[in-house]
């Protein structure tokens, strides 16, 4: 079993021979959060009627590289990378329509990478980039010091490494030290930051944690002085 390489473009490949055959992937990265199911799109155009050939999904950075191989109407498990066993399916009813998209269950951080959708029958391929992330809501704790009120914001379980910043009630950035970031043995990041404010100033504050690559933002809000109200979204 081997992959035939030809000239390829992100998300799209073409074979100019007797007619034209296309393999269409995704023009941009696919984003998934850890624990979710995700579909990596791939289509033959035109569709191959009564398709009974081979579809290979691979990641060339793995050994063995085979994520899912569909041949003669069934999944070929003997060469499948153990990381993907029982976690992948094709839409068998859609093969006749040219849909060879891969569904991946229970996304893991290590699933992030560049996937290759390939058909030896038409000798064409398309690359699909999967970006995987993790996000969680921050929590604010409050304490008092001689210089004012100390607010600490902490958020656990992020990937990739996020950024954290504080805003006042008017949406202006607060001056705070660089956030502290720690990466755990599970590969996830915990980020935290402290800021000292005076009670006589604006009494509503927001801690924002975001990771632009995976398009995730989480916020926590606090109101002081008096009864402290914490809520996340």
UniProtKB/TrEMBL annotation:
Pfam families: C2-set_3 (PF22705), V-set (PF07686). GO terms for biological process: regulation of cytokine production; regulation of leukocyte cell-cell adhesion; regulation of T cell activation; T cell activation; T cell receptor signaling pathway. Keywords: Disulfide bond, Glycoprotein, Immunoglobulin domain, Membrane, Signal, Transmembrane, Transmembrane helix. One of its GO terms (molecular function) is signaling receptor binding. Its main location: membrane. InterPro entries: BTN3A2-like_Ig-C, Ig-like_dom, Ig-like_dom_sf, Ig-like_fold, Ig_sub, Ig_V-set, IgSF_BTN/MOG. Residues 10-117, 120-223 form the Ig-like domain. One of its GO terms (cellular component) is external side of plasma membrane. It is found in: Membrane. Belongs to the SKINT family. This is Ig-like domain-containing protein.
